[in-house]
Amino acid sequence: MDPHRDLYTVKKDDTLWKIAKAHNTTVEELKTLNGIKDARTLHEGQRIALHREAVGGFRVLLLDRDRNPIGELPYRLVACNKTYTGKTAKNGETRRIVTDSPFDMVHIWLQRNDGSWKMAASVLSGFGDKQTVLVSAHIVVNTRTAPHPATRAKQQPDTGERFEPKYKRPPLPGPNKEPGFVPKPTATPDGRPVTQVDGDHSNLLWFAEKYSGDRLSEKVWSEVASDLQCEVNAVKAISKVESRGEGFDPSTRLPIILYERHVFHRLSGKKFSAGHPDLSSESAYLSIRDSQGNIIVDRKAEYDAAKLHGTLAESNFYPAEQSVSYKRLKKAMQLDREAALKSCSWGMFQVMGFNYAACGYKTVSAFIEAIAASEVEQLKALRAFILGDKHLLKAIRTKDWLSFALAYNGPKQKGYDKKMEKEYHLLCKSN
């Protein structure tokens, strides 16, 4: 046993007394931290918290209506008869506090503009290092007003400028480095204060205009299977597992994607993880289902709450909605465009963007433009990807599902092989 770890995996013949003694704690403390009512229910493989830091960590992320962080906002966190005060950081986060147990309530107070205080929410601390996201009903822009320049007696302001500015406007800047609105105080030539606010995301999804709508025909499926020298249903099984056989969101005509924050964390050099943990983190997003496909009750409740309040994009969960994945992608693109595009899996076969070269493209942008064009182009990209990997090619030819899953999805493939085998047999029966 390692006494320095906050979490411990129960081994055979372990008891709470043995674990408590080895880690300088008490049985009662372990029972309280982990909600264990009967010590006899302990079982091998169970993960338990050893210290309250592992389960009682709590912080708040404050966002405005457009999901931009609200910085410099005075707050109070009241929990366990203690009050923690401060101002939110630039990324909208409060300090991290640790409650006595996962069952303690945390009362979140925020200061209004007039200096008075409002209790915004009361939240159960919960298990794990929890982040609660609060979203304002307003858009927050940090700027300040300034007096207009003095005018001579009876002199009227030049109203003509509201129709045709008399000063040369600077060229539009490139994409913002920080997601959200970026206010820029400036002034007209005669000294009148102006605040310019940048926040246009319209150019981020440039590939949307590439959509042609070409659907896959049985002829195209057969041609690709012939090139790979494998069965058609083996190729189709990949699409069934990865995207239920759909390459595009029918409501937007945008390719199906899944944004992966742990990949962005790695490809962006980890430089955004401290300021934007919802977009960049060493840890992947959480699924609300286990490896057997069963709902994880605690996660589902938190997921549903985030969905109800419109904060899924800022949550720790993989989304079911494409709108959430695209919101994350657009925010990440404003931090590091190239890394963000490479950090998504794309299309019917969910090929990662960083595999663009293996699919036969010189740039990730060219790869995405092809994926955004049609399902036909998505299948062609998969063909190149498999042909360039001897392990994938051999596995799909021999229908070695496990080897294919490991080469396609990695060692954490979580039953991908079983799902692919099942879809293959269903396709064969339907034929």
What does this structure look like?
With about 425 residues, the protein is an alpha+beta fold. It folds into 3 domains: about 5-50, LysM domain (Membrane-bound Lytic Murein Transglycosylase D, Chain A, Roll), CATH 3.10.350.10; about 55-135, Immunoglobulin-like, CATH 2.60.40; about 220-430, no CATH class. The chain contains 14 helices and 14 strands. The protein has helices at about 15-20, 25-35, 50-55, 220-230, 230-245, 260-265, 295-310, 320-335, 335-340, 365-375, 375-385, 390-400, 400-410, 415-430, and strands at about 5-10, 45-50, 55-65, 75-80, 80-85, 95-100, 105-110, 115-125, 130-135, 180-185, 195-200, 255-260, 345, 350. β4 and β5 form a beta hairpin. The chain is flat, with a radius of gyration of 27 Å. The chain starts with 6 loop residues before the first strand and ends with a helix.
